Amino acid sequence: MRIAIVSDAWFPQVNGVVRTLDTVRGELVAMGHIVEVFGPDRFTTIPCPTYPEIRLALLPGRRLERLIRGFAPDAIHIATEGPLGFAARRMCLRRKLPFTTAYHTRFPEYVRARMLFPLAWTYAIMRRFHAPSRAIMVSTETIRVDLAARGFSNIVAWTRGVDLDLFTPRAPGPTPDDNKRPIFLYVGRVAVEKNIKAFLKLDLPGEKWVVGGGPMLDKLKARHPDVRFTGHKHGAELAALYRAADVFVFPSRTDTFGLVLLEALASGLPVAAYPVPGPLDVLGGTPVGALDTDLRAAALSALTLDRGQCRAHATRYSWRRTAEMFFSNLAPIVRAAE
Description:
The chain is an alpha/beta fold. 38% of the residues lie in helices and 17% in strands. The chain contains 14 helices and 14 strands. Strands 2-1-5-6-7-8 form a 6-stranded parallel β-sheet, sandwiched between helices. Strands 11-10-9-12-13-14 form a 6-stranded parallel β-sheet, sandwiched between helices. Helix 1 packs across helix 14 (319-329), helix 4 runs antiparallel to helix 5 (119-130) and helix 10 packs across helix 13. The protein is globular. The relative contact order is 0.14.
């Protein structure tokens, strides 16, 4: 099958949406499909207000339609609710082509965190955007229930995976970081919607490490000289940082899933988080995470958890299964309808 994925989040951006789409694309190609991602890298772009590292396609409609028609897809998936997503949606509705969408992030909550925009207004926009979709793919049951209660329909499951060969536990025995322990690790964007300040202000023993970049990085580095900020890390370097840490702290209250949760668990790293969607779905009722409205208490409690059980829990998630779920959710285009 020829699959077109339209996404406002794509390289050189570094985030969970990009990693998910890129990894699923690779799995689909390995399964014998042809996959093309139409991202901002193909268009004239402008910086996103309040987040200039993200580039938004400028008036992409005509060019996007030419590119998609030239690709002649058998299915179209619209991954994001940005300029490219809206342009693809308009094209599909005008040409009466079926399409699917995904709800990757709690976008209304992100907007409120940055611009104090009323939640009800943003959810109304999101509901209208996704209404014609044949299937709205969501990563967790909690998000499905929440969206259904807000009037969304045609919601289907699309879970996430982890690279179990890259992210592995550290070997027993002494390590170069033993004099710094315990090490509390955060991995993700250094941005207001990630609630990273809640982690940085915690009174914890040992050291805090922050891996990632974002609009708040320079300000927080200056404000917290005692914290180790590494910037973006990928591949083996990132995996080594997970292995070196003792607890993974996830302060976000707005993520729909959190790929980093699985990466931490695969590395044998127990998780401390708030009892909110994402952590509740991945960790709830298991012995691999501590969920508490008091994040400090959760972080200290997570120190006592078994690293072997963390790894065992992560092995339940594979990227091949994620790709298979994505494929089964697609809405094939009937050529006669064009």
